Amino acid sequence: MFKSLLKCSAFAIAVLVLLYLPILSWAQTTIKEEAKAAKVTPDLLALIANQSNTVAPVNGLQKVDLFQRNGNAIAIEAFTAPGQDSQTLLQALQALGLQNGIVYRQTIVGYLPVNKLVELKNISALKLARPSYKPTRNTGAVTSQGDVAMRANIARSTYSVSGAGVKVGILSDSYNALNGAAAGVASGDLPAGVQVLTDFLSPDATDEGRAMAEIVHDVAPGSAIAFSTAFVGGEAGFAQNIRGLATAGCKIITDDVSYFAEPFFQDGLVAQAIDDVVTNNNVSYFTAAGNSGRSSYQSPYSSVSFSDPAYAAGTFSAHDFGGGDKRQSITIPGGAQILISFQWDDPFFTVSGGAGARTDMDLLVYVNNVYQPTLSSVGNNIGDDPVEIIAITNRGGSPATLELVLVKRAGPDPTLVKWVNFANTVTIEYDTRSSTAVGHGNTRLGASVGAAAWYNTPAFNGGLTTAVIETFSSAGGTPVLFNTAGQRITTVVRQKPDLTAADGGNTTFFFADSPSDADAFPNFFGTSAAAPHAAAVAALMQEKSGNTLSPATILSILKQTALDMDDPLTPGFDTGFDFRTGSGFVQADAAVQAVGGTPNTPPTVANIIGPKSATVGQAFTYTIPANTFTDAQTPNSLTITVSGLPPNLTFSGGTISGTPSVSGVSTITVRATDPGGLFVTTTFTLTVNPAETVTAPFSITGVTTISCRTLNVSQVAVTFTPLYAGLTGQPISFSVVSFLQPTTAPGPYTVNFVFKSPSVTLRARQAGTPGEASFTYNWQAACNALRARLAAATPEEGPAQLKVLLYPNPVGDEFAIRIQGAQGQPVKIALTDVSGYAISTSAVDVKTSDHKEQLRFGQQRAGLYLLRVSTPEQAVILKVIKQ
């Protein structure tokens, strides 16, 4: 990423001051004291005084704002005071307007309105607030040349691996802020369904994470991919999202992000998260070693007296670079920049809590022998973190020289001082060419990856016997002096980087085309590109093993099979490990070949499942037998899924269950999938039988009286319909003793009754059913009840006319009706056949003037049926023709 130089035409050095931006009229002592009282760092204190963060040029030097902003808010990291609760601090900050707050241990990260910074001093739960600065990135139809350089194409064809069944997680700035993901999927340079847990949708986003995904897809096209940003929430958000990818099932994770304030001499929040997922989630982690080469100064602290009234009154101690020289000159080429993180051997409060740093160091910048306060970094370190950061850009076309002074303001002398330049190559006086793989690039359990350009490998350059390390690829050797509790330990120097992988290959959009190849596709350089190349090879290895390799085994095989390389800055050829190239250049074919065990094979069907049956309306349960499938590699880790189930049946926990609602025959498919994504299927039939019907004895169960019309003083014409039970569908002969001879005509019937016989006997016989059914029908009482209901309404307020509309008619299994004129009344709905057999009955409370109901036949045959809709006062009977 830092290989691209910033081209500008101004003849000055523009400065990015990260941890200190004073107002020139303030005295240094006042700045430190006021910042401490305000519970902020000096740069936030200056922002309180000058909310635009614009400082007038001083001797032609201009400050460049690197704060992360969101509208009128700035990203901050707030630390909980000793004895206080982080949730209490979060609530207090939210009351001031904090947005997107993240709580990680005792740290709160989020966006706070700039005009609320002045109120931070009133929060008792706050120890200190500082800016959360933008991190840096260690900078796909298209295929990366790194695929061939590392012989991954040979590994795939020889061993039939593609990374299938292995999910790879990626952390960078953004994935689809530029809206190019869909085009990448369409061109085949990205897999479909990339899982994006969090993204960084900012104008500053570059979608470098999507470029990394294209590399992974080139090398391991069968792997699923997930992405989460490392640019939101500072180091705490980064660590949280590492664990989030592991929880999402990623077994390989890679990142290309560095935070300038990550501890050099202690494992910080990000490094601890990496160790956590490697240990507890069996994740193999690959991080970019860095792009700083050996642009670093490291030395035991050597004290010499220092004073400068322009800095502060009094005499202090400064570091002696040699021969009593307190100043170290750095020459920056035109258009280049430096970004220096300066640290010393104290524990970080943000990592360990407790007392934090014991010593307060300041990083002073001089130009032409004049102290430049706006370019310097002078935070209050005691009780906080031992780090000061500056960044300076030379906007002119000619080289410019600055001088650094490392001043001890208070506390005991440090034992070791070190700074790392995260930007362009510069000329350094008293250059120690020390390690630059720091922070989580020096992780204990993760793999740190250096970079070699694809065209400087034997696969593309026949004159080479091994790969050549990129000049910018970071060197390892940074000592670890403290444990995570902040206790000093025996010095540990880890063998970092672990490996070297290819960079500079093609992508579809990132970053820019290089003359190193003949095509016009953009080329992606940096350890940012090398790390996903190595991660994808690990996915091929994991697939071949059936997802059984531990992270330690994967890393060990990659190292043992790597092509040995040399660090050109050391004498002779470095046989074996060296602090620039690690164990050498990744050889994918040799690594996959070295994976123990046989290649993964699909599961097999051990026992077939016979036909099954169920019944509509009755509960059904069937458990897939455990011995249905077997697998040579992972017999106890198969995932079983089922498809083709009839309605109302579901599959969960190995069991099919539910109550079938529709009869018929279904073919059920059972699939067993192993952890590598290979599968086998078997089928069986499930027959759902119709619901069983229980026939009741044939009888007349009641009568529906439809109308009563007086003929004369002795006779009444009554229209009615008998209701039956126990119907078999055979013809029914109906009669009324003394009034109606037997008839097989369906009702309703109209019979002239006489007043002297208020009750009559109804008789019916059903063909094929022995016996006769009878029922005493008090027609007179029924008519009186009907007339009473009709008479209840006065002529002025008579009931609304009941109307029932049926649609469609003829009908199928389902039909609808509309009921009008029954608002506010209970309504009974009865569906019978022509013989009076009740098919369905229901009661509804009609709330509207135009009420709709949906009715359904069971398994009745086609024919004529009767629908009776009645209120307490009225009734309507309609003929229903079922097709």
UniProtKB/TrEMBL annotation:
SMART domains: CADG. SUPFAM superfamilies: Cadherin-like (SSF49313), Subtilisin-like (SSF52743). GO terms for cellular component: membrane. It comes from the Bacteria. Pfam families: He_PIG, Peptidase_S8, Por_Secre_tail. Keywords: Hydrolase, Protease, Serine protease. GO terms for biological process: proteolysis. GO terms for molecular function: calcium ion binding; serine-type endopeptidase activity. Residues 604-695 form the Dystroglycan-type cadherin-like domain. InterPro entries: Cadg, Cadherin-like_sf, Glr3161-like_dom, Ig-like_fold, Peptidase_S8/S53_dom, Peptidase_S8/S53_dom_sf, Peptidase_S8_Ser-AS, Secre_tail. This is Dystroglycan-type cadherin-like domain-containing protein. It comes from Spirosoma pollinicola.
